[in-house]
Each structure stands twice: as C-alpha cells, then as structure tokens.
Amino acid sequence: MHPAFSVIFLTTLIGVGQGLFLALFTVESYAAFGLLPAQDSRFYALGSAVALGFLVAGLIASFFHLGRPERAWRSAAKWRTSWLSREVIVLPAFMGTVFLYGAAHCTGFNPVLAQLPSGAPINVTAMLGVAGTVLSFALFVCTGMIYACLRFLQEWHTPLTVINYILLGGASGFVLATALSALVAPGVTGFFGGWAMILTVLAFVGRIASLLRNARLRPKSTLRTAIGVKHPRIVQKAQGAMGGSFNTREFFHGRPAFFLRQVKWLFLLLAFAVPMGLLAGGTTAGSGVLLLTAFAVQYLGLLAERWFFFAQANHPQNLYYQAVS
Amino acid sequence: MTQLALVIDLNVCVGCHACVTSCKEWNTSGQAGPMSDFNPYGADPTGTFFNRVQTFEVGEFPNTETVHFPKSCLHCEEPPCVPVCPTGASYKRKEDGIVLVDYDKCIGCKYCSWACPYGAREIDEKQKVMKKCTLCVDRIYDTNLPEIDRKPACVKACPTSARLFGDVHDPDSEVSKAIRESGGYQLMPEWGTQPANHYLPRRKTQLRIHEDELVRADNPLKIEGRLPKPAMTEPSLDDVTSW
C-alpha cells in the first residue's frame, strides 16, 4: 500500500494521546488505593492537556486524508458495519472525556460520589478516568480493526495488528508520561519509567511477532485466480493505460525492497532499542531532557514503523498492475 | 431477486478497447459528473475509468496465447467494499444487485478501494469522490431509449459480442445459460466475495475424427482406392450407373 502521511500521523499521534491518558489514570488509581503518593491535580490537568493536544493534532491530520473533508460529519453514519465509522464516533467521545477529566482536575471540581467498602473514595475524576480508559481501549481496537478487518490484506488480517496498536500507542504514551513527570512530578517518574520500559519491550515482542508472521505469509491470490487462467506462467503485457492510474498510485509504495529493509531496521532501532537505553538512563538520573529525547526518538521510530506497516501490505489488486506495457 | 451482471467471453475478446472508450464516453457525459482526465495529451496522462482492458500472455514461447482481459466492477453478491464505507455512500441496490456510490455522500476516504481485492474502484481526482462501474444504471432503465439500447454502453460497443448483460439469478437468462453451458467462472473465488460478473474461459475448437470416419463403413472387403470414374458420356450418378 502507499503510506499516506495523514494516516501515519493520525494513528501515531492519537496513540500517544491515548497512552498518555492511560498512564495518568493509572497513577491516579494507584494513588486512590494508597499504592503511590497522591499527585497534585495540576499534574493531571497538564497531562490531560498534552494528551488532548496530541488527539486534536491526530484529528487534524486525519482530515488531510479525505477528498471531501467538509462532509466528514457523514462518516458517523455506518457504525453498525464500519470500523472507520466507529473510530469516528469513539475519537471525539474520548477527546471529550479527556477534556472533562482535565477540566475536573484543573478546576478542582472533584466531589466524592461513593465509597468503596475498603474506604477508597470514588470521585468524579475516577468515574471519568474509567470511562476514558474504556474509550481509549475502544479507540485502539477501532483503529487496529480498520486494518485488521480487511481479510485479503493478509499482512494486516491478524489479531497482532490490534495488539500492536495498543502496545505501541501505550508505550509511546507512557514514555511521554515519564518525561512529563520528570519535569513536574518527580515522585512518579520511576513508576512511569518502569511501565514505559515494560510496554516498550512488550511492543517490541508484538512487532517482532508480526514481522515473523508476515515474513512467512503466502499470498492466497495469484495471477491464476486473478484472471482465472490455469497456467503456471502468465505475464502481464498491458494494464490498460500507458500512464499511471489511481490503482498504480494508491497501492504501491514505489520504493525498492532494499529501502523497505532499511526502514525496518531503522524503526526497530528508533522505536525500541534507543528509547530503552534513554529511558533507563533518564529514569535513574531523573533527567527530563533525556526522557523527552527518548519520547522524540521513539515517536520518530513509530512514524517509520507505521510507514513500514502500510508499505509492507501487499494488496491483491497489484496482481493486475504489474507491467505498463 | 435480480442480480444484474456482465458475462465476459475471453474467447472472443479481441482487446480493441471499444468498451473502454464507449464506457468513458457515456459516463463522462452523465449528470453524475465527468470522469476527469489530467494531462490527456501530456507526458504523464492519467484519468478515471470504470473499465479497462488488460493483456496477459499465457505460456512460454512458442506455445503462447494472448488473453485480453476486460476488468471492471464485478458487482459482488458479498461486496467487501460496502460494509466498510463509513458514510453509507457505497451501497448495493436490493432490487437489482448493482453496487453504486452516492457521489453526494462520499467523503473520499478511499477505504472502500482498499477493501476491494480487484482494484475496481478509482478516485476521481477532480471531484474527489470514489467512482466505479454503475452498469450504466442511467441507461438500462431509460424508457426513452428503444428496448434494444437499454444495455450498458460497453455491451453495446463490443464488436465481437464478448460482453453479455443480464440477470444471473434468472436461470433462463442469456447470461445464466452462458455461465452454465460455457464454464463461466468468477475472479478470485478464494475471498468469498461471489462476484456477479462472470468470465467465460478461452476455448480451443478442435476437429475430432474417429477411425470409422476415415474408413468407409459400407466397404466390407476393406478395399480402398480410387473409384472408377465414369466417362462423360456415361449416365450421371443421379441416373443409373453401370457400377
């Protein structure tokens, strides 16, 4: 497939926002049970604002993918059948929840609604946090399923696609949370850093699993089934147009296989190996600069990862477009 | 249930592209908007087409065969492009099974084209909406046209009658008979999309001669050879001959 930068930015940016929100609420729920020291509500407000910023940036990026952005509102219509439509509904719902969560922390409006038998309070931000967590995971599933549900794009049609969206988004969000906490809430930097490293390792395992799986794939469709002629040797002599067409632009990445391999090694290095080192150093030293660098490097790695994700998918329609003439 | 479709006979298609130009001419003049071209006479021409004719070479020289392969939307009975559309712009008509795009609802997200394994959909770079074969829906029901003309433009244009049009769910229709009797098949059956359009395979016409057709059956003594040629003055074969 041709990697579109609008979609690359959309999926990586909202992944960061979702992961960051999950990180914030993880700390708040740990603190509610007394497992971590309670944090200043300004930390949550700042974190939510940053998460919201990433989500808005992702939403803006997504509009560049549309031919008719002024009709984007229509895309909420077919949520019964289309994962894209579901994403279009869940993304604003999640953004609204993150906004309310941040606003509740910012204004200090946080009355206790109920109490658990153990005595732990259930307040407004806890309810919003649970809702946001559910929506965040729902959004990961929607985003992943947009690709995983296309059964003839065999590279994508696997549960690993959804799992990797969750793990990669979660890892980048937790890395950003670590960096933020080093700047404003040093008490939880170690906690965030530990989870960021765990998630980065898990994301690495998930991505390696999908790379191994895709390396062993055998295309179900061949030229024989594509045109229905049973002969081992079929060569295309003309594709119906001497110039390019939508079909030659949208479904080919247009780069040599060598370039693809380089991008693969690049993202394995930038998204996993380098950030792990920077995280370990930054967390022990409590250095915000080092941790921000870790986030920036990992984000660049994720851009490369997403580019590779699209470029690697081989659409069966390409069988019809192998030779110009 | 009606399911209109094309049946394309690869045995007769000569690859003349008449269906391509006729389709473009009819549909670019329609009220749904033009099928835009860019640089039509320039270095890098490109444009929107509903139908393309491709050419494949089968086999190895000298035993090769050229297959001209017209390719358009197959109007699948289980269209994978329809459920993925977020706006409902892409839909399959219940009454006749034609898969259509509502150009006023399409947001141009291209997701349906990703979901089509055949590459049948093309975005119109000017109108920024997804376009595809409509089976000339604005033509086949037009009662102002004489009944013989109520067929897709490509079918009318084909000089070798390689394209048949009709209801594949009606067992007595011309297309159903062709599929049944000439080995009609679907493209990429492995995805379960059940394309309504079918293709008829290349066929070799061979003359089969049996032994007993070479030897005169009414020649019990197995004597072959030239028969005596009567002279001009002899009575003709229609009369009584001497032999």
List the helices and strands and how they pair.
The complex is a heterodimer of chains A (325) and B (243).
Chain A lengths: L4 H28 L8 H23 L19 H25 L4 E4 L5 E3 H25 L10 H26 L4 H27 L7 H5 L6 E5 L7 H5 L6 H29 L2 H25 L13
Antiparallel strand pairs in A: 1-2
Chain B lengths: L3 E6 L8 H11 L8 E2 L7 E2 L3 E10 L2 E10 L8 H4 L5 E3 L6 E3 L9 H4 L7 E3 L4 E3 L5 H4 L12 H5 L5 E5 L6 H8 L16 E3 L10 H4 L29
- Termini of chain A, distance in Å? 22 Å
Strand order of the largest sheet of chain B: 10-1-11
By oligomeric state, this entry counts as heterodimer
Which protein chains make the most extensive interface, counting residues with beta carbons within 8 Å of the other chain's beta carbons? A-B, 57 and 61 residues
The H/E string of chain A reads HHHEEHHHHEHHH
Shape of chain A: elongated
Folded structure, characterized:
The complex is a heterodimer of chains A (325) and B (243). The mean pLDDT of chain A is 95. Chain A is elongated and about 75 Å long. Chain A has a single domain (5-320), classed as Formate dehydrogenase/DMSO reductase fold (Up-down Bundle). Chain A is mainly alpha-helical. Chain A has helices spanning 5-32, 41-63, 83-107, 124-148, 159-184, 189-215, 223-227, 246-250, 257-285, 288-312, and strands spanning 112-115, 121-123, 234-238. In chain A, 49% of the residues are buried. In chain A, helix 1 packs antiparallel against helix 4, helix 1 crosses helix 10 (288-312) and helix 6 (189-215) runs antiparallel to helix 9. Chain A is 67% helix and 4% strand. A two-stranded antiparallel ribbon of chain A has the order 1-2. Chain B is an alpha+beta fold. Chain B has one domain: Alpha-Beta Plaits, CATH 3.30.70. Helices cover 16% and strands 21% of the residues of chain B. Chain B has helices at residues 18-28, 81-84, 111-114, 137-140, 153-157, 174-181, 211-214; strands at 4-9, 37-38, 46-47, 51-60, 63-72, 90-92, 99-101, 122-124, 129-131, 163-167, 198-200. In chain B, the strands form 5 sheets. A 3-stranded mixed sheet of chain B has the order 10-1-11. In chain B, strand 2 and strand 3 form a beta hairpin. The longest helix of chain B is centred in the first third of the chain and has 11 residues, at 18-28. Chain B is elongated and about 90 Å long. The model of chain B has no long low-confidence stretch (mean pLDDT 91). Classes of the chains: A mainly alpha (325), B alpha+beta (243). The interface between A and B is large, with 57 and 61 residues. Strand 3 (234-238) of chain A pairs antiparallel with strand 4 (51-60) of chain B, so a sheet runs across the interface.
